[in-house]
């Protein structure tokens, strides 16, 4: 329950939506996933602390980077709940996500390069196609179909 002195510091879900640019349904979804928290007022309506705005901003940026919500939730767990994420918090999270983004870019670049070899081929062979062959044994010999040597 919200104390009387905090009642004016709280935001309704509509106010959070208007200030953050995030739909009410998305805010409810974030809450259902534990990414943000609200309290109930005397009328049993959700009220959010103002700090939630920075949390929502952080969630949106992370989503734009392609970070899965579950991972964002794990990252947010390390942040104190009684204050907005600080610049220092953001530095830690953004450095971690930067490394993940670099790794994803590297993987996607590799996949793109392998796809180049598939364009115009069409074999989709489990043995020869580097995009189908998880071990990529024959794919290491270059693009296009390869036939096992006797
Ligand atoms: S389609 Fe991928 S190597 Fe043929």
Automatic annotation (TrEMBL):
Domain HTH merR-type positions: 10-78
Gene Ontology molecular functions: 2 iron, 2 sulfur cluster binding; DNA binding; DNA-binding transcription factor activity; metal ion binding
Signal peptide: none
Name used for this protein in its record: Redox-sensitive transcriptional activator SoxR
Alphabetized UniProt keyword annotations: 2Fe-2S, DNA-binding, Iron, Iron-sulfur, Metal-binding, Transcription, Transcription regulation
Any matching Pfam family: MerR
Classification via NCBIfam families: SoxR (TIGR01950)
Organism: Pseudomonas fluorescens
Keyword Aminoacyl-tRNA synthetase: no
One GO biological process term: response to oxidative stress
